[in-house]
Design brief:
Number of helices: 5
Helix content: over 70%
Length: 117
């Protein structure tokens, strides 16, 4: 299947999932949730690819398509600005927590699907 079509189909799924979660949970909590889940799943996806557990096409569909549309740096940025105007300390904590939490989740996902070698 064409890689562009694979990404487009995955992107449609990811965007729909992102919208559904933002309707269910509003505000920065929604953004943190999708970025955390997306980080974990992308770490798992990349480890699975590195260990030949999934194909390149599956990785493109899941990683670039679904998770690319599901996660959101732009909303994180806007949330941070809005929180900043409300409470600067809270905004700094939000940024620090996200910047530490999401890479840790990616590592957990990677380790969960990686080999020990």
């Amino acid at each position: 299947m064409n890689s562009y079509l694979i990404v487009a189909l995955g992107g449609a799924v990811g965007a729909l999932l992102r919208f559904m979660i933002s309707e269910w949970i509003e505000g920065p909590q929604s953004t943190l949730l999708v970025n955390g889940v997306g980080s974990f799943l992308l770490g798992a996806c990349m480890a699975a690819l590195a260990n030949d557990l999934i194909s390149k096409d599956t990785t493109i569909f899941l990683g670039t398509g679904i998770l690319g549309a599901f996660t959101t740096m732009s909303t994180f940025s806007v949330d941070t600005i809005e929180i900043w105007y409300e409470n600067q300390v809270k905004a700094i904590c939000y940024v620090l927590f996200t910047m530490i939490f999401c890479p840790l989740l990616a590592l957990v996902g990677w380790k969960a699907f990686g080999t020990t070698s």
